[in-house]
Design brief:
The chain is an alpha+beta fold and 427 residues long. Helix 11 packs across helix 15.
Amino acid sequence: MKNINVTQLPNGMRIVSEKITHVKSFSLGFWFNVGSRDETEKNSGISHFLEHMFFKGTKKRSAKRISEEIESLGGYLNAFTSKEHTCFYGRGLNAHIEKTFEVLSDMVQNSVFNPREIEKESKVVIDELYDIEDSPDELIFDKFESNTFAGNPIGMPIIGTEKNLRAFKQKDLLKYIEENYTLDRFMIVASGNVDHNEIVKYAKKYITRDYRPSNDKIRTISMQPSKDLFVEKETQQVHYILGKPTYGYKDLRRISVAVLSHILGEGSSSRLFQKVREENGIAYQINTFLNSFFDISTFGVYLSTNEKSVSKAQKLIFEELEKIKQKKVNAAELDRAKEYLVGNMLMSLEGTTNRMIRMAHQMIYFGKIIPVEETVKKIYKVTKEDIRDLSNELFGDSSLTNKFGEFESCSLTRVILSPKNLLLRKA
């Protein structure tokens, strides 16, 4: 790919850039291969808390000055934390990329973590935690992953716990940075009207901190059978997830799971949307999801409905899972799902930020940039037989309902969030 360049410096830091000549802007990301999966119960939430604290002032810039220097040039800074990585990024006009690079460099190397700012920001993040608690459609996914990955760091919520957020001190943040934010876990990724050699020059000029070598942490996961979970919450609707773990990014079969997910529940033409919402009118929100990490994903069905309709909705879901196990999808349905998946991917890549994120993910998970055309070919190669075999693998270890219409034990687990315990035996 002639417009994409990758350079690895002797200290282990990698620089990746994609030149797009027809735009006048850039997206520049500073990526650390560090996330909540690298935490323990004692420091759960520290990666996300650090993401906030890096914006709270350096040795030469206040928090206000960090924002003003970029916004005065028409750009902006932002960041996000996932379970497997943390990204600090800037957007702006290509003439201002060096200033954005220098400010980001200052933030990730010279933040002071003033104890007063730590105390203030902990309150802000606790408010963010409360917002999640007040958003059942968001909270239920945290509960589902905590239940699915019980006993593993990957199951802990990214935001952490209120107890930890109130306890973090400057020394805790500095220790975590020393142990995890190392140059061999650091990557600079840019997309837009950028010059690769210039970015390499900025890296050599502005990244001057002598980080220690990586501690070579190995992320592992030890799965235990999960059980249905009821979460009591005062809500107007019942929120429901039925799902299980499946293949992660490193396994090519994940692409088939993505196609299956589209057939079942992504988009208004999907089976579950048509059956549950359009034909029966019993759920405003119903969709499948595929949330992926390097070595594992979670796949399932989410819906919200009223208390009286949840049993019927569950029965309809089971019926659709049984159908897709027993009978091959037709060619038109399969082609529609593929085109939906390809179309969504290609449209998302019309912006430089999404292109920058895609390149970073691929370098983190695969160690190389995979051409979009290659990914498209893999999607188009998925067959009707692949979908049927995968459906039987995911849903076929036991009957979902017995002859009495009761829910039978299987590898699919349910999480139900509602005011009353609705983990009923009856489907």
